[in-house]
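At this stage, I needed to go through a protein sequence along with its fold in token form, as given directly below:
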Amino acid sequence: MSSLAAQFERDGFLVLPDFHPAAACRELMERGRHLSENYRLDGKGSVFQTSEQTKTSDAYFLESGERISFFFEKDAFDETGALKGDLFRSLNKIGHALHDLDPVFDRFSRSPQLKVLSASLGMQDHLLIQSMLIFKHARIGGVVDVHQDSTFLYTEPDSCVGFWFALEDATIENGCLWAKPGGHRTSLRSRFARDGKGGTRFLELDPAPLETDGMQALEVKQGTCIVLHGRLPHFSQPNTSGKSRQAYAIHTIDPTAHYPMDNWLQRDRRALKGF
């Protein structure tokens, strides 16, 4: 086992500074703005919330696994359904197939250094199943409640691993990630599944609440890669600063693991690719 793999097994996360150069981070942010500027809002936009996604799940959300889709902050719209501000700064994220459908995101998601990292972690055969450009705009970027990524990308056995890239400096003030070393050595509390009626539901696996005691702020510089175990509880606070905290995340699964048909995100498994 490599030293990185041993550290990951012990802590449940890795913090790898200077993983991507600043130029690559800027290119991804510029591409995200370009995609946003070419998006045309048709009717009421789809809202993303980690804790209350069952209330805002719709066909647009459920079909986003095979598309490049745009999701808004929960407070982006007024009581009439109109945007309170400009479209770009009202967005929460873009997802969930950027890594497969956009050439700029594809290059970033399958960089030579990421191939080396995945091999050192024994994950060279993992499949990239989801990607998200997360904006966390200044003064509007909302809270992401404590959660486990395997809740949203459930496999049997558990195999989800996330790679989170700081496209800008992440601080306590602008909503960096929080996690506890060793926090992944716990049970998966729930999984997010389709309800068979066009919506979604959380299926409880363990009623114990996720604890935030002992979590530390992962304040990192632009270009840092944070690797996250699927069972690691983590969260981020609202962005109360005057600086945005853009990040890009990809999630992977083991191709030999069972991926249930009622998982909210569905992809054509034959089309999935690795690093």
In short: The chain has a mean pLDDT of 93. The longest helix spans residues 22-37.
